[in-house]
């Protein structure tokens, strides 16, 4: 790995491909086609892009039942325990509606309401991602969303992966469609003859899915535009080089565009980690992908002091941040920007990916400076409650109408003043 001293003026941020003009135009064309031609356009693009002709896009109960025949009991136990952990964590995020009253009869409050319908996009085709289902569906269920629709690209045989179907079934998801790409996002956003439109679309995907979500935003809500996965490790001289190398590679194997970065103030550790990454790469099944990621987007940054190393990870605002330090709980208050923070050498990032409970849908590409992990709140909306009594209007009405006239809105002022003149009780 590249070892880079942190100097004044060195930017640790990287630019992420936002799609070419040709890709954006292609996505725009697909979305408009789906909006105009519905199911016919969805099937046509599935045949054109996925090379699969799917006449029945809705997964049948028989397909799910058959999938259970191929999944062993040990796997089911793991999935069910992960579901329990993730659900328990997200239930602690639930917000309640509230009201407050004043002596003059004023009642103010906030009403929390779950969204009516949510679409969950699950990447597929050549690989299966059951964890993506859990992390996107469970907070929606905890929030109280009544209709959850799932779409995923079909495999070459026209079906979805068995573990995907079983995981969805374990969560009680019945409405699952074998479609992917921009056409799936269009179907969820605009609706077709067989797919009713949703209110929000969540879930990761390739550049076409990301661009499609970006373009339908406003018609529906979306979770975020996620970039390639990334991990930053903050380490001091007590850290285990083998552990760090393994964790860096666990992100690098995702994608050639993934980023794996170590920040430390210890040059000896930096050299040990660089050497260990090379050793571990040799036996990694996805060696080519991980090596490309490490070479193109990986780095080991050496800071002059540990405080400057902390400043560097805050500048990175990484999706995942691991603290391989002697006293991680002492360092935690100094961390301002990170999607998820893993404390101590035994809190490896994959634990959060699959099992611990917190959501693994996290802000990427520095957006942890202003964004948060996917949560129950992402599947609710809030309404303000305002109830003024006649007494309250009489007490404050002149001030309110005067405020309206500050903005030259005479009708606003008169609407309040009419009530000051009203003798009806």
UniProtKB/TrEMBL annotation:
GO terms for cellular component: cytosol. The keyword NADP does not apply. Pathway: Amino-acid biosynthesis; L-histidine biosynthesis; L-histidine from 5-phospho-alpha-D-ribose 1-diphosphate: step 9/9. It catalyses: L-histidinol + 2 NAD(+) + H2O = L-histidine + 2 NADH + 3 H(+). InterPro entries: Ald_DH/histidinol_DH, Histidinol_DH_CS, Histidinol_DH_monofunct, Hstdl_DH. GO terms for molecular function: histidinol dehydrogenase activity; NAD binding; zinc ion binding. NAD(+) binds at residues 121, 183, 206. Keywords: Amino-acid biosynthesis, Histidine biosynthesis, Metal-binding, NAD, Oxidoreductase, Zinc. The keyword Cell wall biogenesis/degradation does not apply. Its cofactor is Zn(2+). It holds the Pfam family Histidinol_dh. It comes from the Bacteria. Belongs to the histidinol dehydrogenase family. This is Histidinol dehydrogenase. It comes from Salipaludibacillus neizhouensis.
